[in-house]
Amino acid sequence: MLVRPCIRLVLMLFGASTSSCLLNVSAQTPEPPDVVQIRVSLTQRGLWGQDYPLVIASIPAWAGIQENNIVVASDVIIGGTPYPTLEEARKHADALREAFTRSLPPLRPAFARAAEQGRQLAASKISASRYGGDDSYRVIIGLGLHLLPLDLRISDVRSIVGREQMERRDIEGGGGERRPIVFTGYIYVGGALIYQSSSYAPAPDQVVRVVLSVQPALRAIAEVQ
User: Fold this and answer.
1) How does DSSP classify residue 186?
2) Where are the alpha helices (DSSP H) in 28-179?
């Protein structure tokens, strides 16, 4: 009768129970594709601006206030949840500020270093503001930051992250004398990671925003347990 290699090795060398082998197999279970692809994106510093550490530092804090998605623009990080009043948005901004004071969860070493740097920038950058895309109020981090390279193109993203699953066009703003903005989204892993170009951008393929799903992003930077 053949004994599976993993069990045989454990029995011969260590005399351990088969449960040790099962734990080893479990540790090798492939990660979800959204986590892997977001990690690839967040690891590549060429896809981000000089204030990249604040993006990393903000992910556990956004998770701490149960935010589902964030929008990383060139100079500001925008929470995905729309609030009907400025007062309500300010309450959540206060909660985000408090979340930054909590201890960081265990992160992979490169991300842990970036997060510690980014936390030093955060406190004075958190606020609530009207969001022109839908006239709601949002929690934001920034204004005046450098979060994305000004010359980032979708071709640069494809060369590192791979080709998107699909494209989608979304329209924001408009009404009155305001012209709407058309965003072209290059969608990865079912929308957990989206690079966006804009009808207002100097070049049609220039990346002006990155949309991240917070929980997959948190798992992407977390230390393997």
Assistant:
1) E
2) 33-43, 52-64, 86-99, 109-122, 154-161
Q: For 110, list phi and psi in degrees, rounded to 5.
A: -65, -40
H/E run at residue 26: helix 18-27
Cβ proximity of 139 and 126 under 8 Å: yes
- Per residue in 14-58, pLDDT tens? 344 333 433 343 345 788 888 999 999 999 999 999 999 999 999
d(CA 41, CA 161): 6
SS3 category, 29? coil
Beta bridge partners of 186: 167, 195
Whole-structure pTM value: 0.84
Return the DSSP state at 85. S
CB contact at 8 A, 210 and 72: yes
Question: Would strands 193-198 and 181-188 be described as parallel, antiparallel, or unpaired?
Answer: antiparallel
Could you give the 3-state DSSP secondary structure of residue 2? Answer: coil
